[in-house]
């Protein structure tokens, strides 16, 4: 499946166990290798961000390869 990054922006991100993580804000790309590395997610207000990597702007950083499906929401398979 092909998709533009702008189609992901603003979509709700949810873990595979149903926890709402927040909304996708941006992605990090390795321009030398041409790989998408991470999703940057604006965390939901009630999300405990202590269990995530958080970057300088307060967005949580989730590996792109954790994305499992994209429909109305983006489902991410997170390692525990």
Question: Can you walk through the features of this model?
Answer:
The protein is mostly beta strands and 80 residues long. The chain has one domain (5-76): PRC-barrel domain (SH3 type barrels), CATH 2.30.30.240. The chain has 1 helix and 7 strands. The chain has one helix spanning 5-8, and strands at 12-15, 20-30, 35-43, 53-54, 60-63, 67-70, 73-76. A 7-stranded mixed beta sheet has the order 4-5-3-2-1-7-6. Strand 1 and strand 2 form a beta hairpin. It is globular. The model has no long low-confidence stretch (mean pLDDT 90).
Question: What is the CATH architecture assignment?
Answer: Roll
Distance between the termini: 27 Å
Q: Structural class of the helices, strands and pairings?
A: mainly beta
Shape annotation: globular
CATH topology: SH3 type barrels
- Give the helix level as a range of percent: under 10%
Q: State the low-pLDDT regions, or none.
A: none
Order of helices and strands: HEEEEEEE
What count of domains describes the coordinates? 1
| Average of the residue pLDDT scores | 90
- Corresponding CATH superfamily: PRC-barrel domain
Radius of gyration, in Å, reads 12 Å
Which CATH top level class fits?
Answer: Mainly Beta
Number of strands: 7
Widest beta sheet: strand line-up: 4-5-3-2-1-7-6
Please state roughly what percent of the residues sit in beta strands, choosing from under 5%, 5-15%, 15-25%, 25-35%, 35-45% or over 45%: over 45%
Main sheet makeup: 7 strands, mixed
Number of helices: 1
């Amino acid at each position: 499946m092909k998709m533009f990054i702008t189609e992901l922006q603003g979509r709700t991100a949810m873990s595979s166990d149903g926890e709402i993580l927040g909304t996708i804000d941006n992605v990090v790309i390795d321009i030398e290798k041409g790989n998408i590395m991470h999703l940057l997610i604006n965390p939901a207000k009630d999300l405990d961000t202590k269990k995530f990597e958080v970057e300088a702007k307060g967005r949580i950083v989730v590996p792109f390869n954790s994305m499992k499906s994209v429909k109305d929401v983006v489902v991410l398979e997170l390692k525990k």
